[in-house]
Specification:
380 residues; alpha/beta; Rossmann fold; seven-stranded parallel beta sheet; five-stranded parallel beta sheet; globular
Length: 380
């Protein structure tokens, strides 16, 4: 009897760590199960189901967007980060297949990334801007921020949540988002026809241009310590010995200013300033996107600009660490070489990176290649 109850609870809680709609993507499910208990997983699902029942929303959930829905509101209130938004929103190009009219409700920071992007009919950031008249609501997930918008403004409107209860494991969000939208738009049987790729603001021209074969875009700074590299100066010193006539474009936000100043001081004292441009802290995202399109290589740690480089189709020498396996950011057919460290990107030697620069580039890779400094992280 006890075994049967445990099995039922395990099945019930599996929605926390298994993607909805039968989607299969790379994730660290095994590691997630190892660090959480059955009770914790049951509670994560149960508290949301209880909230849906108490607020009379449980029976308004749908699995697909009905064909009759002409006006849809997409409530996207995840972490307001550039990289996350590119992973989660690239699949929006599928909306055009169904001629779906979609408004986006999101954070102001996300709205700034995607202003004038024609994919969205409107981008709303203030609750006072929300109006009635939507046929259907799509929530990014069943988190409290999304649910509060649903309860307050669209109490009786049918809805679905792309992530459902799925929350916790690291996952390839590009592929998850694509497959989730294919399912809810009822396009799963045509999956091979819609191989979506990373895109940034579609106001910008994503078409390929002739790249400068001797230009490297180096991304400096970072938001979290374990994904912020502290050895870029040592890398540049080694790299210019290998490629003395290459041009360097330093890119990044204000958190990369210190590194950019040290690199510029080095160029002033030891080499020629004509080979370096410093855009750190004073270039817009659209200007940075153009720099990436012109560059023959992007070098940087996992973050927003790495995902922008993917959208620009720029070859990548990337640094990653911790539980995030390269296959949770890249597909095997992408032009990238990723070095992964167990705890922090600072465990990666700058001399190793310079050696890879000489060995693997500027010749374009034909597929994703990976180097693990230590043990390979869990990736099912």
């Amino acid at each position: 009897m006890i075994r049967k109850i445990v099995d039922l609870l395990s099945e019930y809680s599996s929605a926390i760590y298994k993607p909805p709609f039968g989607i299969k993507v790379h994730s660290n499910e095994k590691s997630f199960l190892h660090i959480t208990t059955l009770g914790q997983r049951v509670w994560r699902r149960l508290k949301r189901d209880l909230a849906l029942l108490i607020t009379y929303q449980f029976f308004l959930q749908r699995e697909k967007i009905p064909t009759s829905a002409k006006k849809v509101l997409y409530v996207y209130l995840g972490t307001p980060q550039l990289g996350d938004s590119i992973m989660d929103l690239s699949a929006r190009t599928l909306w055009r297949v169904k001629e779906l009219n979609v408004d986006l409700f999101t954070h102001k920071q996300i709205a700034n990334f995607y202003y004038e992007d024609s994919t969205f009919s409107k981008i709303l950031t203030n609750k006072n801007e929300i109006i009635k008249g939507y046929d259907f609501i799509v929530l990014q997930s069943l988190n409290w921020k999304c649910l509060k918008i649903k309860w307050r403004f669209f109490f009786r409107t049918p809805f679905l949540a792309l992530h459902g209860h799925f929350y916790g494991p690291e996952v390839n969000r590009y592929n998850f988002s694509r497959d989730a939208w294919l399912h809810v738009l009822d396009l799963t049987d045509k999956k091979k026809q819609f191989n979506t790729r990373p895109v940034f603001n579609l106001k910008l021209n994503h078409s390929p241009i002739i790249r400068n074969k001797r230009k490297i875009a180096l991304s400096l700074g970072g938001v979290t310590s374990w994904r912020t590299y502290d050895h870029w100066l040592e890398f540049v010193k080694s790299a210019i010995v290998i490629f003395p006539d290459y041009n360097w474009s330093l890119i990044g936000s204000n958190n990369g200013l210190k590194d950019s100043e040290m690199i510029m001081d080095f160029f002033i004292k030891h080499t020629n300033l004509k080979f370096v441009e410093n855009h750190v802290g004073h270039s817009t995202l659209s200007e940075t996107f153009e720099i990436l399109k012109e560059s023959s290589l992007f070098v940087g740690a996992d973050g927003g600009l790495m995902h922008m480089a993917k959208a620009a189709k720029t070859p990548i020498l990337g640094l990653m660490a911790g539980p995030i396996h390269p296959l949770m950011r890249f597909n095997t057919n992408e032009n990238a070489y990723i070095v992964h460290a167990p705890n922090s990107v600072n465990e990666i030697s700058p001399f190793l990176l310079a050696g890879l620069l000489e060995k693997k580039f500027p010749v374009n890779l034909e597929k994703l290649e990976m180097h693990f400094v230590s043990n390979e992280p869990d990736c099912n």
